[in-house]
Every structure is written in C-alpha cells, then in structure tokens.
Amino acid sequence: MRRSYNKKSDFNAIELSNHFTYSTLLRFTMSSILMMIFTSIYNVVDGFYVSNYVGSTPFASLNLIFPFIMLISAIGFMFGSGGSALVAMTLGLGKQKIANGIFSFIIYTVIGIGLLLSAIGFVITPQVASLLGASNEMLPYCTVYARVSFIGLPAAMLQICFQAFLITAEKPQLGLKITFIAGIANIILDAVFMGVFKWGLWSAALATIIGQFIGGIAPVIYFLLPNDSKLRLGKPLCNMKSLLKAVINGSSEFLSNISMSVVNMLYNYQLMRFAGKLGVSAYGIIMYTTIIFIGIFMGYSMGVAPIAGYNLGAGNYKELKNVFTRSMKLIGGASFIIVTISLLTSGLLAGIFTKNDPELYMLTKHAIRIYSISYLFSGLSIFASAFFTGLNNGLISAVISFLRTLVFQVIAVLVLPGLFGIDGIWSAIVVAEMSAFVFSLICLFRFNTRYHYA
C-alpha cells in the first residue's frame, strides 16, 4: 500500500512509494545533490593546493591527465546509474529477493573490473600522457599523479556506484554522510600533504584516494551487515541478462563520462595550439567550477531516476507525471539561478586559482563569463537523460548523452576556433548545449505517449 509522506515525520520516512511535493522532492534529492557537490569539491581542493603550493607546471599537468583518469573510472557511473534503475524497478514489482541478488552481482562485478582497469591504467599512463601532448617537463608530473590515482580506482568506482544505490535503498542521507566524511578527509590531507609537508603533486592524488577508500568501503560494510534498508549484499544473482540490462540502462552515463573525458582532451589539444599552457590552466579552472554547477543538475537527476523507475514498475503513471512536471519547473528555475551566480562570481572563481598570475586571471574570468551561458540549457538535457535511464530506456538516454557530451561539442570545438579564435573554444559548449536542449525536448515530447509522464 502506498504511504503518503507526513511533513512532520522524519526525513527517513521519504520512500520511493511516496507522493512527492516540491518539498519532498528537494529533500529526497538533496543528499544526492550535496554528494555530487562534495565529490566535485574534492577535485577543486586538489586544484587549489596544486596551483598555489606546488606550481604552474604541475597544475597544468594535473589538468591535462585528469580527463584520462575520469575516462577509466566512468564505468562506475554506468553500473551505478543503470544498476540502480533496474533494481528500483524490480523493487517496484515487489521482487525484493531478486533485487538484492542483482544488486550484489553488480557490486562484485564493479570490484573485479576496477582491479583490472587499475592495472591497465597504471601501465599505459606515460604513453597516454605523451599522446595528449605533455611536454618533457610535464610528463613526469602527469605520470606520477595518474599512477597514484589508479591505485584507488576500485574504491573510486565503488564510491560512484554506491551514490546511486544508496538512493535506491532509500538511504540518501547515509550516502551524504559518507561522502562528507570522505571529502573532509581529502581536504585535510591535501592541506597537510601539500601545505605543510610540501610533498608535491603526487600527494594530491594520495589524499584523494584515501578519501575514495572511505567513500567506497564504508557502504560495502554497511550493506554486508544487517541493516534496515531495502538492499543487502549477499549471494549474487549471476544473471548475465540482468547485468547486460544494467549496462544498457547506464550506457548513457557511461557515454556521458567517456565523452566528457574525450572532449576535455580535445579542448586541451586546441588550447595548447591557441594559448599554450596558460589556456590549459584556464580551462582546468573552468572545469573545477563547472563540475560544481553541473553537479547540482546531476545530483538532482540521479535522485529522481529511481523514483521514475519505481513508479513505472508499479504502474503509477499519475505519480510519474507529478514527479516529471515538478522536476521540469525545478530544473528551469535552477538554470537561471546558476547562470546568474556564475556570471556574478566569475572574478572570484578565477582568483581562487590564479594567485600572482594576472594574465591567467583575466583569461579565466573572460572564459567563465562566456562558458556560463551554457548552464541555461545543460540542466534539461542532463535531467532528460537520467529520466529515461530511470524509465529503463537506456537507448534514448544514451543518445541524448552521446549527442550532448560528444557529437555536438566535438563539432563545435573543431569548427568555432577557426572562426573566432580562442573565444570559439570557450563558446563551443554554449552551442553544443543549445543543440542538446532542443534534441532533449523533442525526445521528451516524442516518448510521452509511451510512458505518460506529461
């Protein structure tokens, strides 16, 4: 039987089966939003300490190699988002034992794949850094940062994966607490390793993987022990069909992260041509600010996806429509607020990372102002992709993500710099997000007849 949510009741009472108001939607998704923001802040803190305490060359090296690290770890997003959508729909069908078996199988698979990719990444890092255009001066920094990062890759993938599953388990607040503790550990260790001990760039990666081990292992312990959530780690349901379904469901998030990494590499390549190391550093700063703003959209969308999956499985189209309508209004309002904040704080954001470098400061401030316009359009596309993942339509979700994060951006970043110079690089994202916005609206309109969400 469905239970309505009493506003006076405890936060833990919000369940996937509830009727969602604006208040309960925000409260249920707030943990995932904050999780994404805190996760983004880890990278921002790394950049801050590296740029201000280690030097400009290590900072540029970090920004050059980081997309490669994200590319390898993207598989965690795939299993987390796709698997949680499948498990949520299975719970909606009332098959809790099967849901737990699928959940366990996915987690054990992520651990195995993480160990394999960690070894591969460790070996090929120097070659990849050279292909990305690292100079002889930058190559040692790229190599050491990436290799230390890959030691923690299995934990990082688990942390990403559990961010989605803790929402499906109706424990988003626990996910937030774990992420917060992991983030605080990372921030403190960054300050100690680089600010006090002066250990250099490699210690930024060390601080990060310690935080990742906290964020990845703590949920494993929680789900192995008796708990009051809907999910438990135990005997896996070794069903390759279910695993394939999770992979297809999460392919959009996988493609999104893969594409973003590839596009970031392409941006860096173009910037090395048009502005050199200074341009790469400016773009790295933009990425630090962008992942926080985009993290708000991603966190909200990640939180809503299991709700959509559950109500689809339960056949409750009235609530599916309610959640969709409210979400569209929330995403629209947030888009305008985020653009305004970014424009007003462009100087402050640039100044955090450009200590005693006025040329880099002016370049970054100018770039942020152009880049900020993209936030008007990105929220809808991110939500649309995650919403279709929740509906277990991995194909449409993947197409939206693929076009948004790869096709439109690659075309724009290759064509526009030839017409407008370096400003063409900064404005490429705006053109790409506008194109994805239009395509997402077409998809939402087209598939409403199948899912009845509007």
Reconstruct the topology from this structure.
Blueprint: H1 22-54, H2 56-73, H3 75-92, H4 96-131, H5 139-151, H6 153-168, H7 172-196, H8 201-224, H9 240-249, H10 251-274, H11 277-314, H12 317-344, H13 346-353, H14 358-371, H15 375-390, H16 394-420, H17 422-446, H18 448-451
Can you tag this structure with a few keywords?
single chain, 454 residues, mainly alpha, 18 helices, 0% strand, disordered N terminus
Largest sheet: none
| Domain module tally | 1
* Residues in helix, %: over 70%
Strand content: under 5%
Task: Give a description of the structure.
The relative contact order is 0.13. This protein has one domain. Mean pLDDT is 87; it is low at 1-12. The protein has helices at residues 22-54, 56-73, 75-92, 96-131, 139-151, 153-168, 172-196, 201-224, 240-249, 251-274, 277-314, 317-344, 346-353, 358-371, 375-390, 394-420, 422-446, 448-451. The protein is 83% helix and 0% strand.
